[in-house]
């Protein structure tokens, strides 16, 4: 597996990664809201007074505000969705006001751009939602500082922009209010968990089992995140919400049982997978009658089958409990404490301060962003560009490293924007003012939430022409500006690559950071083994939480490695080399889960000495990765309950030795390197 992955990188899989479209469902509701919210203000102006540049400019500003809120309307549920959109509206409007204040003053503009970049970079340490909202603060600060909207009073611009953002936010609130609080996002997230469980069970003993396990981990992470984000003091007391939290908690037993069946190599009962799919369908489209569980079919000498039957029986009880809760006339109950608490602003500020004080990585990312933004604004001032906002806007979008690979975003932004600027410029120059431009804006706005999760180049190819039309529709255009806009965008991408990416040592140390994360994962697996196999009076909730935390680490690390695939081969080859080790560690976690679950059914435990051997071997695995040497042959259990885990640890040792060899630059490979030690 390692050989294939590295060979793919060497043959240019990084290019394929840049072009790859990620699968994602089509969010029809958000597409409609984006289309109506963005197109209505500018559409009314174009239809009522297409030749009144002031009125069209005001409409385009309101549509720009609606566009910001639409871009923030992603997968969040409940009140968290409104909070994210409101935060983006406020910060983007403040950025717009800052840019308006310095427009026409070159030195003040440069200072304001640097200050906005510093704020945006520091806000990135507070969390993903705050980071994205701060990006819009930066984007609209540099847009307003470098563009004229043709209004009699420049201070009308940020006010109209904010009104447009509020208009789009109100659309969402009204839409949610008309539909009622049905917990649809939470139900869909839970349905994805039970669909993934059915897929994992159905793929037991086949080549598709590993991919199904990865999908299950991601579904569990998404469900926990969705339910945690949706919880407020009011929602937490809603019995419907509590019942969904209970279904997520009850999935832990089913996960253990499904993994145990997968690890056993036995063919699972098809009725069990069918029941899990029926539960998923019922969650997506609830009916008064819950799906019926499969009939018990005992299998002699198969504790994993007994485990699965017991888990499905408990699931049936939980589903019946959810079905019995009325959709109206709800009563209030005590909050359910089983979900992790949402971090308060004070906690996030403390975490941000620790990240900034503990090391240079966070400060280095902020410095790179500020430096690139300052150079981009300086280039605009020195060259006296006609449309300077495109240069700094490009740098702002690409140089947010917490959104993924800077290299990939620069290349994707460049290719997508070339197409987008061409389309937007031609639309302004050739499409008649009025209904046809309104129709084009409507289609582009509806496509935004569909393209955003799939590919950044596709997103750039849609968002760029929409932004160009909204910024410049009041002034008109001509074909000579098309080339100018494309050059401005490519200049921004070049600044990012030549100043913010290639010269920095942290760019080339990325594979070693991946190795350090893999070592931390090995130690996390060791802690999980100690909790799950330790026996005694271990709290089942603590075991489930430790397993969930470990699988989340695996999922997060896979995201990091997947992002690195679109970097140049010198970086991607070394980072991707650790992917087989992550898979091997996941197999160890599966073996631990299966062993603990089947032993619990049989009333047996792992000998304490064997648990120590397993945790010691896993800890040493992490030390070997940190020390960049072959794993040591520490003793492992032979025949007995811990044998399955020990077998997977042996395979992980081989994977680590291979990854360490391949993650080095080819010129640095040592000859005659010893292979991994056996057990």
How would you describe what is shown here?
The chain has 679 residues and is mainly α. The chain contains 27 helices and no strands. Helix 6 runs antiparallel to helix 15 (361-383), helix 15 (361-383) runs antiparallel to helix 20 and helix 17 (406-430) packs antiparallel against helix 20 (480-501). The longest helix is centred in the middle third of the chain and has 26 residues, at 239-264. It is globular and about 80 Å long. The relative contact order is 0.10.
Q: Using DSSP, what is the number of strands?
A: 0
Sheet with most strands: none
Strand content: under 5%
Structural class computed from helices and strand pairing = mainly alpha
Regions with little confidence, pLDDT below 50 for 5+ residues: 1-12, 666-679
- Please provide the ordered H/E string of secondary-structure elements: HHHHHHHHHHHHHHHHHHHHHHHHHHH
User: What is the CA–CA distance across the termini?
Assistant: 22 Å
Mean pLDDT score, rounded?
77
Estimate the global geometry from the Cα principal axes: globular
* Approximate helicity band: over 70%
Number of helices: 27
Radius of gyration (Å): 27 Å
């Amino acid at each position: 597996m390692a050989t294939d992955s590295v060979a793919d990188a060497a043959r240019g899989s990084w290019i394929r990664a840049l072009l790859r479209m990620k699968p994602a469902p089509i969010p029809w509701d958000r597409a409609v809201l984006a289309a109506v919210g963005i197109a209505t203000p500018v559409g009314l102006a174009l239809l009522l007074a297409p030749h009144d540049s002031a009125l069209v400019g005001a409409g385009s500003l309101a549509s720009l505000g609606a566009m910001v809120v639409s871009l923030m309307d992603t997968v969040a549920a409940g009140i968290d969705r409104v909070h994210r959109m409101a935060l983006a509206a406020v910060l983007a409007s403040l950025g717009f006001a800052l840019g308006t204040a310095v427009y026409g003053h070159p030195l003040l503009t440069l200072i304001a751009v640097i200050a906005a970049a510093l704020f945006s970079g520091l806000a990135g340490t507070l969390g993903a939602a705050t980071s994205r909202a701060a990006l819009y603060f930066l984007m609209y600060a540099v847009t307003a500082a470098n563009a004229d909207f043709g209004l009699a009073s420049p201070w009308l611009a940020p006010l109209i922009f904010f009104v447009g953002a509020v208009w789009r936010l109100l659309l969402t609130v009204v839409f949610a209010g008309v539909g009622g609080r049905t917990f649809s996002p939470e139900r869909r997230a839970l349905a994805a968990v039970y669909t993934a469980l059915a897929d994992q069970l159905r793929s037991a003993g086949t080549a598709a089992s590993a991919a199904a396990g990865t999908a299950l981990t991601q579904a569990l992470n998404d469900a926990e995140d969705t339910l945690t984000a949706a919880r407020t003091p009011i929602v937490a007391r809603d019995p419907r919400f509590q019942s969904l939290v209970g279904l997520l908690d009850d999935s832990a037993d089913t996960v253990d049982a499904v993994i145990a069946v997968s690890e056993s190599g036995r063919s699972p009962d098809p009725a069990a997978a069918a029941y899990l799919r029926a539960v998923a369908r019922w969650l997506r489209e609830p009916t008064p009658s819950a799906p019926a569980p499969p009939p018990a079919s005992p299998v002699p000498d198969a504790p994993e089958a007994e485990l699965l039957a017991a888990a499905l029986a408990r699931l049936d009880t939980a589903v019946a409990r959810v079905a019995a809760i009325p959709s109206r006339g709800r009563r209030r109950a005590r909050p359910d404490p089983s979900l992790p608490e949402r971090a308060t602003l004070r906690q996030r500020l403390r975490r941000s301060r620790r990240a900034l004080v503990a090391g240079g990585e966070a400060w280095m990312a902020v410095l790179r962003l500020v430096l690139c933004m300052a150079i981009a604004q300086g280039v605009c001032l020195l060259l006296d560009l006609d449309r300077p906002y495109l240069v700094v806007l490009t740098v702002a979008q690409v140089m947010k490293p917490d959104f993924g690979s800077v290299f990939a975003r620069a290349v994707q932004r460049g290719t997508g924007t070339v197409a987008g600027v061409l389309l937007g410029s031609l639309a302004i120059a050739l499409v008649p003012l009025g209904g046809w431009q309104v129709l084009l804006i409507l289609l582009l706005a509806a496509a935004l939430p569909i393209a955003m999760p799939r590919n950044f180049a596709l997103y750039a190819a849609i968002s760029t022409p929409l932004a160009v039309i909204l910024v410049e529709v009041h002034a008109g255009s001509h074909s000579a500006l098309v080339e100018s806009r494309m050059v401005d965008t490519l200049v921004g991408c070049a600044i990012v690559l030549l100043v913010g990416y290639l010269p920095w040592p942290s760019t080339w140390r990325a594979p070693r950071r991946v190795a350090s994360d893999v070592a931390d994962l090995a130690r996390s697996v060791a802690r999980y083994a100690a909790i799950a196999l330790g026996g005694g009076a271990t709290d089942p909730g603590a075991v489930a939480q430790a397993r969930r935390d470990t699988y989340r680490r695996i999922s997060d690390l896979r995201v990091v490695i997947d992002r690195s695939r679109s970097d140049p081969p010198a970086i991607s080859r070394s980072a991707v080399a650790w992917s087989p080790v992550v898979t091997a560690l996941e197999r160890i976690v599966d073996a631990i889960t299966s062993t603990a679950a089947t032993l619990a059914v049989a009333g047996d435990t792992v000998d304490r000495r064997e648990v120590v051997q397993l945790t010691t071997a896993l800890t040493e695995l992490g030390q070997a990765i940190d020390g960049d040497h072959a794993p040591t042959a520490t003793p492992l259990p032979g025949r007995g309950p811990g044998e399955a885990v020990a077998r997977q640890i042996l395979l992980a040792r081989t994977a680590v030795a291979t990854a360490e060899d391949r993650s080095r630059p080819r010129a640095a490979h040592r000859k005659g390197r010893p292979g991994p030690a056996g057990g």
